[in-house]
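Format notes (please read before filing issues)

Several people have asked whether sequences and structure tokens are stored in separate files. They are not. Every record keeps both together, in the order shown below: the sequence lines, then the token lines. Line labels are part of the format and must not be stripped during preprocessing.
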Amino acid sequence: MLTTPELVVDDELVLRPVAKGALEAMIEAYHEDAASAQTALPWLDPNDDVRRQLRDMIYDINAQQGTDRLHFWSIHTVDAGEFAGLIGLGDELQSPHSDFNLGYWVRRAYRQQRIASRCVDTIFSWLAQRSEATLVEIAVHPHNTAGLATAGAICKRWGGERLEEFIGIEFNERTVPHHLHLVDVQPEA
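Then the structure lines:
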């Protein structure tokens, strides 16, 4: 299960391993709503070349292919193949016990359709095919109401929990408090 597979979410969405072919759509989505892109991808420096930074991200992800350290997908509509967002399992971990952190970014036109939740369920079902449990963390800024609701719903469906204490995450030389949610995805019986 080292290679990131294409995953069918449902009859409306498909997850494709991130590839350079998604770059133009990602840049277009960034310019539609730079603020939400910055929230989802806080390492992006808006004062630097965004195209280069996103291209480098895709390159870094693809360079890790097969290592089971990163799994990132671009979210596409089945009917038109349109880019609806980005979702992934990364290795920027806050808990020493976690295997992956979960992050996602849904394009403005596709929000409020439960896309993130639907994609997470598909990814967690894929993780449940492993022989051992996989601990996934979700860090959410306390003012991100939609993100907190999504993380809470994911925890409810998958038996996860939100830790009581805040954790500090470094962004642009600042420590920013976040809620940390942990979901222990168990192997299918």
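For reference, the curators noted about this record: Strands lie at 7-8, 13-17, 71-77, 83-90, 100-106, 134-140, 161-162, 167-171, 174-185. Helices lie at 23-32, 34-40, 50-63, 115-127, 145-158.
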